[in-house]
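User: For my dataset I need records formatted as: sequence, then structure tokens, nothing else. Please produce one.
Assistant:
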Amino acid sequence: MKYSIFLNIPADDTSLELYKQYRNRLAITARKVFMKKIVSILVVSLFAISAFSEDTADAGVKLETGGLQIALPQGWEVLNQSTNFFVQQRARNLERNYALSAGTFKSDLAIDKYVALALAGFESGPEPHFEKLSKVTGVSVTDIENMLQSQIGRQELQVIKQAYRSNRFEVLDARRIEVSGVAAYELHLKMTILATGGILYTRQFTFAGASPGEIVNITFVGPENIFQDNSLANAILKTDVVQHPEISEISGSGSDSAVIDRKTFSVSLPNGWKERTTDKLYNPDSFVCFIGPRSCLFKVEIGKNSPGISIDRLLEYEVKVFQKDFTGATTSTIAKWANFDGKGLEIEGTTKKMTRDRLSLFAFENADNVCIITEIGKLEDLNEYAGDFEKIRQTFRLK
């Protein structure tokens, strides 16, 4: 009987369809109307400033979210309000009339696309200034236009406009920064409450979270001097990036690489790459994903070479699974990966996250095992970290 090398189930059309459905579920993240998270942060922060509490401020407050720690100085106190999917931590400083909301959430959009869409929603005019948004986020004008014309983009933008119909926003400043070596965005907004004429200012820091697909928002609300208060930025700059429990660190301290030696393969990973152990199909010898910098990913799938196993059929199935995630894609064939001869495809196009990605699939075999290699990431990340992938290719061995 034929067996799927990855699931150990009969490799007939029914089992392959079940596997396809499972893989599709892995690829689909919750398509929540993600701009509600910003509404929740700002609205709750407004209440936080005026709320009464019997608690007194202690020597300081330390909050944690999305793998980040926020160390607030004396005068801050934790605000015990109900949490939600988007906001898990809150604090306030009554003396300075500040409030803080911090939360981590999942998004289908990469962080630069998320920030671009948020800024487009905050624009007061009928049409956002795409050139300005592009300069701030690094997202091309064409990509911003395509994102706003897409179904998910139109839906999200409508939610923003509807949610903020009672307020008027002015984007005072937006910039890309680095916190502990991690890329982030800082947004300064002036918010006018139309019903009362009241004005508040928000200072928002947006980061990529510790886990793939996560975004962290840390938002301070208060009077205008909030933008000049260095203690707020310093609280974030001094935070430590905490290792997410769902991702195991492979690299050793002080090492420029890590050697992975398994029953079926071996490879040397560049510094900073991590092994993701939470996939339901995870097996250290047959199904392993390695997460690199930014969007870079390298996956190894290995099974026993047995009668009925065809690299053509396996490759065809993998292509069908992934190809639907690309639009406007170009495809080219690959006959060699590293020192291995086999069959493969390279797909380049725009993904559902509105990023320009490249996917490489390559299948090959030896007397004992069949292997499928996957490399994927945003084009700019793959180009920047081409040396990492080259090291992986040159050191990979199929046993």
